[in-house]
Amino acid sequence: MPIFISYSHSDKKFVEKLAAHLVKNNAHVWVDTWELNVGDSILNKVQQAILESGALLVVLSAASVQSEWCKRELSAGLVRELEERRVIVLPALLEDCEIPLFLREKMYADFRKDFKTGLNAVLDAILRITNANQGRIFKQKAINDWAADWGYDNGLFQMHFTIVQTGEDLPFTLLTEVTVRCNKPATQRYEAYVAQRLDWLRRLVLTEHLAALATAKDLRVVIEDQFPKELRATSADEKRGMQYDILVRCRRLGEDNGKDQLVNVSNYLEDIRDHMRGVARKPTPEEFQRLLALIKEQ
After folding, report:
1. What is the mean pLDDT of residues 200-208?
2. Is the distance from CB of 126 to CB of 270 less than 8 angstroms?
């Protein structure tokens, strides 16, 4: 999900600089001048963007706190905070001004003296709520906490997902680990993306591929006792010689309620994919050209 930037057009120069730096740091941002086209309904587009955003970055200045449009955007963000019971509104102070009443108890990113200091504060805040590589997913009465990591094993690239499911009504915790191991051609493909500084995009593609495979194969594991249960699957691109070996490992921790527990791994991976889709930014025009070049090499 993108970060919606609410600001007065009097501060356009600052906002464009801020947005450009956020994009360079892999943040997905929504700025009206970047997203709106001739003929678009401004009200509908902005309303939809606020509802679908991961957070609302409010640039506070003498002009913005007087802007009726900015006041409406801020109100929408605060309403979402109350409804979703999580941080939505992130204040950024551009200059001394009268801070709106409902923002006075919030910490803000301070750009008044130093741009870099304010930028780092914004990036830290964004990471806490829009990190593409970890998150928390609410599923009915369950909470699924997850994180992704990656690296090399004997020279072969692999991604690893750890999912922990808990819930108020569950006397136990479910721990699931999913590892995707690339063969040599698939590893070389990843390294080609690394060379073009598009490794983040390749990991997203691998996650998409993993979720699609899990859906097709309906990956489920039945846990009967305290011992780990394993499930293996393989996906191959015979034309390009790339192969992906998947290992799923599940276990139950905590009380033994005497019942078998079904773990729907496919649902886990679909939720992770959806989260990463929502948080991941779009490639910049320059990155898109590098991506096209990589695709042509296949």
Report:
1. 94
2. no
Q: How far apart are CA 45 and CA 254, in angstroms?
A: 48
What is the residue type of 1? Answer: M
Residue pointed to by tokens 């040599």: 184
CB-side neighbour CA atoms (13 Å) of 113:
1
Residue (of 195, 200, 197) closest to 150 by Cα position = 200
| Residue 73: predicted pLDDT | 92
> Which residues are 275's β-sheet partners?
none
Length of the chain: 298
Mean pLDDT lowest among 35-44, 46-55, 187-196, 260-269: 35-44
**Cβ contacts of 263 within 8 Å, gap of 6 or more:** 165, 174, 176, 220, 221, 222, 223, 250
Cβ distance 3 to 130 under 8 Å?
Answer: yes
Q: In which residue ranges of the chain is CATH 3.40.50.10140 found? A: 3-130
Please report where in the chains the tokens 């941002």 appear, as a residue: 29
Q: Tell me, what's the pLDDT at 249? A: 97
CB count within 10 Å of CB 128 equals: 11
User: What is the reported pLDDT for 139?
Assistant: 78
Is there a contact between 159 and 181 (Cβ–Cβ < 8 Å)?
no
C-alpha distances (whole Å) from 145 to each of 107, 148, 272 are 26, 11, 10
Average pLDDT over residues 263-277: 91
What dotted CATH number matches 3-130? 3.40.50.10140
Structure tokens at 227: 């011992």
Q: State how far the Cα of 281 lies from the Cα of 287, in Å rounded to an integer.
A: 12
SS3 8: coil
If you average pLDDT over every residue of the chain, what do you get?
89
